[in-house]
Records
---
Amino acid sequence: MGLVVDHIHKDFGKQKVLKDINFKIENGEYVSISGRSGSGKSTLLYILSTLDIPTAGDVFLDECNTKKMNDHEIDVFRAKHIGFIFQFHYLIPELTTLENVLLPATNLKVESSKVERAKELLNELEILDQIHKYPSQMSGGQQQRVAIARALIMEPKYIFADEPTGNLDTYNAAKVMDMLDKINRESKTTIVLVTHDPDFAARAKREILLSDGRVVN
């Protein structure tokens, strides 16, 4: 069934940020959400990815109404099926690269079975040599690639990326986008990407354009 958005509204006090949003994303699609600053892109992504709830309307992931799931059910669903990539890496400063990558697996108590996969991801992202370093010992681009490996460690069905290249130089930004392209192509992972970069948005197979909290395409 994929991801279904049914008449989503989101208000912050009197401010109406999202207004009657409706669309469907099929399993394995690569979709970008674009629009001007303040159009509601990140708010929509947070609702789609279960990090926030709508004021009205429903989001269905694999036929599950996320609004009706309790906190434990949401936590387990996220850990098993969702990978998050943000503009800021949100690595745990006290953990090494390997420990940060394995964090979702650690939370599910399956970290030992994911160590080799973690090394494979770090190698693909060209940071295997950083495996025992702490975030403070790495560049911004290296830290972001660690965050991407963390998002991929459980081989999630869905990846939600909010401006994942926003703090990266041209080389590292292209590296990140190439990795997302590859994951979508080879693993059929559903990717929903928020970006202000039209070239990166164009990499997606479909674009959802927002203007003033509404879908306009």
Note: The mean pLDDT is 90.
---
Amino acid sequence: MHQGTAVGVDVGVARFATLSDGTVYAPLNSFKRHEQALAKAQQAMSRKTKFSNNWKKAKAQVQRLHTKIANARRDYLHQTSTTISKNHALVFVEDLQVSNMSASAAGTLDAPGTNVRAKSGLNKAILDQGWGEFRRQLDDKTAWTGGHLIAVPPQNTSRTCPSCGHIAKENRQTQARFACVACGFEENADLVGAINILRAGHARLACEVSPAGGQQQEPTEATIRELACA
């Protein structure tokens, strides 16, 4: 049975997920935790004669590490998504294009990338979080418990002041801190993002359940209308 109503979820790297009610889930960083061991195992495999018994043993060790990383990530995502879906009837997330965000930082021969090392590190961190799988699990589990997962456009969720509504990139001068240049409101940037995601979700629902919102009528349940106006 749901204990709450609606919640916005902001995903990140420093914090895996921040909810609009202030709940924070720390990142597991499964790949990062085993990165050195994996690199060592891969290096050992590369030194063996290909297809020899020793090479096969080394390859099996690499595969075991990959499996360990994947299983730990999947279990963490399962636990986190289960908790959120049980406690909230409506879950709003940003409609992030994870594949684009984690694309190669090297670029192409015609358009080589810049700050490749830093971007490559960020790309690996994004992939390590498993945002795409997290959203898939949330979608399945909210549906299973009778709730709904709704994606909202990510534009300006990190730049909008939840206190006065002022929108400016200067509002977020660091990754962790939000400070509105108009009214002086300060808060953790991820929490601000989650609050804005929640508000964007309510705004979308208000449009979709209203006759003035055009042809979009999904979702149409009366319970969603009540939650959106709560």
Note: Residues 14 and 44 are 32 Å apart (CA to CA).
---
Amino acid sequence: MTEVSAVLERLRRTTDTIVGETDLAERLASGRPLRIKYGVDCTAPDLHLGHAVNLWMMRHLQDLGHQVVFLLGDLTTRIGDPTGRSETRPVLTPEEIETNAASFLVQVSLVLRTEPEVFEVRRNSEWYDAMDVATLLGLFSQVTHAQLMARDMFRERVAAGREIALHELTYPVLQAYDSFATNSDLTIVGSDQLFNEQLGRHFQQRLGAAPQVVITSTITPGIDGGAKQSKSLYNYIGLTDSPRDKFGKVMSLPDSLVQTYAHVYTELPIDVVAGLGEAATQGGPPARDAKLRLASAIVTRYHGANTAKAERETFIQLFSEGSRPTDLPEVIVSSATVLELLLAARPSDSRSELRRLIGQGAVSLDGRKISDPDEPITLTGPTTLRSGRRIWHRLVPPA
């Protein structure tokens, strides 16, 4: 297998579609570092394993010397991506955009390398703030109404009698021009962005540049076996989740998802992946052991082998032997309501998610089940908080 074939084979493991595969092979063979556009709108980021599929493909290419152009869509965020939306999205303030941009950079660095030679940060306000109206209208003239209305969500909104604001119709055009402005050779996106990125190929060709290659990545069900991972559905494994949370969430997977998750979210050999899937179909101890192997592989990828080994041992101790963990993360917190205590211990979770946990009877303090999120709690000493089956904290009042 040639070097180019090996790269393509590795990418195909987590790829759904490649638009321009022949071009990609030729560019890889040229030896020239490719520019890989990774564009994001600066909405509140909460990246999960599904997003990381794209990041790991980019990371592999970075390790081969190619450069990721991390494009912060600070201008297009003011418009709002209409993808998958039945209504116009609220516009964020400049302050919110900047806060979200900083958070994005932190989260993507959990996977991507950020050395200047393989990572470049750009903002699309660089070219749009300087663009005059005549030039902008010239861009719009390159796209027809029929092309835009080919998008499912626009057709669906028209059919349902819902309005489409004019600025929403411009969004795909602006995202497409980003590909020309960044000299993109390749972009790796979710399938919901395929239309916009193919429009980017259209603009590049119209403006005299080589069209970018577009890769769409594999999408899996969430950890509940239903819709794809989403924070609003509470069915995701977050990149910023602790090693313990990642391990525990993998162990909660339906047996039917073990092989899929091992294939998409790990680098385990394909024959090992198939073996885990076969074991999972047997149920009982074989399925449990397959999940332990899968959870260890995922935690190893993000946190290292030693951490994964420790989390495996802790999980077995907790759920096979019924013990309580001894190394609880400590949270210093004043007396407050139950919900406020949970927010202090789990700041990345929403109030609605934490209220849901309380309503399910999944929260306890020193073994006492809590049912009222507004119950006032006075801490007189260290108190053990359990929220969910696998998350423990030690609450300590200020000295």
Note: The chain has 18 helices and 13 strands.
